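User: I'm new to structure prediction. If I give you an amino acid sequence, what do you actually give back? Let's try with this one:
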Amino acid sequence: MSSPDIDIDAAGQFLAGSARVLERRRFGRLFSGGRAEYVRDSVAAYRNPDGGFGHALEPDGRGPGSQPLAIQFALETLDEADAWDDGLVRGALEWLEASAPGEGGAVFVAEDTDGWPHAPWLVPEDGGRASLITTGLLAGTLHGRGVRHPWLDRATALMWSRIDELDAAGPYDLRAVAHFLDHVPDRDRAVKAIDQLAPLLTSPDVVTLDPGAPGEIHTPLDFAPRPGSLARSLFEPAVIGAHLDHLARAQQDDGGWTFNWLAWSPVAAAEWRGAMTVGALARLRANGRT
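Assistant: Good question. You get back a string of structure tokens that encode the predicted 3D arrangement of the chain. For your 290 residues, that looks like this:
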């Protein structure tokens, strides 16, 4: 079976008509020679005086206050576009350090969501414990850029401690763990951890091998997005290829891609479609499909 065609021009038209400036700048940087500072400035528009990011940068949290997931969205975007900015990153780390729970890392949702629209699942967790999701995502992205900071040192120690005792976890937790392990400097320990977590990462309760399965599923590409991802070894090449084919075919008639979780807000849904469109194209390119 031949590889599905991807219409990048149609994706650009979709983004021009339906997406945020941020996603249009991301697309321009990745696919038409746009300048890194345009992405940097678009991200900076969501920054707060405390150094964190909010204002619906992560579309499911609509409040203005700084949030860990919004910071991760900012850092991931800067990394993707090679628009890394030491000043923005330093401010984000200062917020993370000041807001960290006692054990280190980052909470899932900061307390200032009350009174602002947000997805029903974006609520502070009881006890204010560090989250595998936010801590793993943030630490992985920062390690990928070679950052050194006391917050990252504590977050890394916390992640190793949690991974060593992990015997059950949900898909989003494991996606963050896989991201962390893909970038943490201790590669030998990361390889051993992937082997340890293989039964969880390949469980039918976590990953769906059928590319056409409906609903809010998590695919092998969510745990192993790039050819060099550690979790790639857990899935047959034919399975990865089938999911890449399905991702390419998921481009819709309007040129964009969409998401598979609850659309709780029309504005958030539109913003997620833009983000997913750039994300799908970037993932396909990383796997040699564009």
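You can read the tokens as a compact description of the fold. Here is one thing that stands out. The chain has a mean pLDDT of 96.
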